[in-house]
């Protein structure tokens, strides 16, 4: 029986996949796995029993990834599972910036009781007029699950689209419309585009990438959209640019104390992934990743350990070892198994940066003593025997 703990509400459709072998617990310290959305986990202490954290979503900047890796906790995310939801909100954001739809609706509500509303409307509506998206240049920074979808749909809206992503994956490149211009530098995109939307993770080299220097390269009256993370855009610089009129509108999914209430900031309360479909997709993928890891030891879509798959565990026992990616680990493991006269039926080892994972199927029972010896090998972070 495995225990899981939810730090945020997780869609029931996903949780339903955790069958009779799973029970929810309100106590994170006794959980084998944690499911989370945006709850901040940096200050949390993790119990030795915790094996995995699944982020039902894409961004993992709320989780201390390296500390988890050092403590032998595998962190998963759900790539692409909410990308369509975010894409649709980006398009809505562009439309809200192009015309003063929000101002117009608010104005109508003020006249709710007025019998002459139809007549006044025709007089006043010009105050809320705007422009169309067709024919405008859109720059997409980050061509991952969301960026590719936004770029492709913008092409269908008649926009001239520029994409920038120095690390674009082969899959993403295949999915990208051929009519999208490849910006070789982000500065080129800044200089060309009327709308700029950012879809990169919050990393050391992306935090604050849209600052006063970047903004100074952009066209006067540019619209910037940020449905990725607040920290990607320097908050003081964007406020200054809105006040001066250099930036016509800033659409963000991240309310901060600096941006809320600033004229021409369209601030959405982090609704990008808040659709039934995205919530279900993320929860289903997260639950499936956790099950496969807890029951078979397989790792899919981890952000701090390598992906590794030896299929469904058979009748024999499976040893899984999370360890540092340093020389001679496999040699030490196999020597210890040989010392116990154990036959290895199947073995896989994968590494990712400083961390590695070894899975070993054996034909006989793993003793507590062998488990202890494997755990004591220098560089081993966690050993688990799936029986
Ligand atoms: N508002 C929301 O509710 C919501 C929902 C999902 C994701 N997000 C945010 O959006 C981000 C992107 O999501 P995704 O699903 O598209 O992720 P993804 O991992 O599929 O794509 C990210 C892309 O950014 C690129 N990239 C990384 N560094 C870059 C740089 N310096 N310059 C240009 N490109 C760079 C990567 O190569 C990758 O292609 C997430 O990390 C998350 O922070 C927000
Ligand atoms: O869980 C959410 O609502 C937001 C998720 C989003 O920020 C993500 O990075 O996937």
Automatic annotation (TrEMBL):
Gene Ontology molecular-function annotations? NAD binding; phosphoglycerate dehydrogenase activity
What does it do? Catalyzes the reversible oxidation of 3-phospho-D-glycerate to 3-phosphonooxypyruvate, the first step of the phosphorylated L-serine biosynthesis pathway. Also catalyzes the reversible oxidation of 2-hydroxyglutarate to 2-oxoglutarate.
Record bears the keyword Lipid biosynthesis: no
Question: Which pathway is this protein assigned to?
Answer: Amino-acid biosynthesis; L-serine biosynthesis; L-serine from 3-phospho-D-glycerate: step 1/3
- The protein's superkingdom reads Bacteria
Q: Which residues form a coiled coil?
A: none
Recorded protein name is D-3-phosphoglycerate dehydrogenase
Q: What is its EC number?
A: 1.1.1.399, 1.1.1.95
Enumerate the SUPFAM superfamilies for this protein: ACT-like, Formate/glycerate dehydrogenase catalytic domain-like, NAD(P)-binding Rossmann-fold domains
């Amino acid at each position: 029986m495995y225990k899981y703990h939810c730090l945020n509400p997780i869609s029931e459709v996903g949780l339903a996949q955790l069958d009779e072998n799973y029970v929810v617990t309100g106590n994170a310290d006794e959980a084998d796995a944690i499911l989370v959305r945006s709850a901040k986990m940096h200050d949390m202490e993790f119990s030795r029993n915790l094996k995995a954290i699944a982020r039902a979503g894409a961004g993992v900047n709320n989780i201390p990834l390296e500390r988890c890796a050092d403590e032998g906790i595998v962190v998963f995310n759900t790539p692409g599972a909410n990308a369509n939801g975010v894409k649709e909100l980006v398009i809505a954001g562009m439309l809200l910036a192009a015309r003063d739809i929000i101002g117009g609706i608010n104005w109508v509500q003020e006249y709710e009781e007025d019998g002459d509303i139809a007549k006044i409307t025709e007089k006043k509506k010009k105050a809320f007029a705007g422009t169309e998206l067709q024919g405008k240049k859109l720059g997409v920074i980050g061509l991952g699950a969301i960026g590719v979808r936004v770029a492709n749909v913008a092409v269908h809206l008649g926009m001239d689209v520029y994409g920038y992503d120095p690390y674009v994956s082969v899959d993403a490149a295949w999915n990208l419309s051929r009519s999208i211009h490849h910006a070789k530098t982000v500065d080129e995109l800044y200089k060309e585009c009327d709308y700029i939307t950012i879809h990169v993770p919050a990393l050391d080299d992306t935090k604050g990438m849209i600052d006063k220097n970047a903004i100074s390269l952009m066209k006067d009256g540019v619209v910037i959209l940020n449905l990725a993370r607040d920290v990607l855009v320097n908050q003081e610089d964007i406020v200054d640019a809105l006040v001066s009129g250099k930036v016509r509108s800033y659409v963000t999914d991240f309310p901060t104390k600096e941006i809320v209430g600033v004229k021409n900031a369209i601030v959405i309360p982090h609704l990008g992934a808040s659709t039934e479909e995205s919530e279900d997709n993320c929860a289903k993928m997260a639950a499936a990743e956790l099950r496969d890891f807890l029951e078979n030891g397989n790792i899919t879509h981890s952000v701090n350990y390598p992906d590794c798959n030896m299929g469904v565990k058979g009748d024999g026992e499976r040893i899984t070892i999370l360890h540092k990616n340093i020389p001679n680990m496999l040699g030490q493991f196999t020597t210890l198994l040989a010392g116990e006269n154990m036959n290895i039926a199947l073995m896989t080892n994968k590494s990712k940066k400083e961390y590695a994972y070894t899975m070993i199927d054996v034909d006989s029972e793993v003793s507590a003593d062998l488990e202890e010896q494997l755990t004591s090998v220098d560089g081993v972070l966690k050993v688990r025997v799936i029986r």
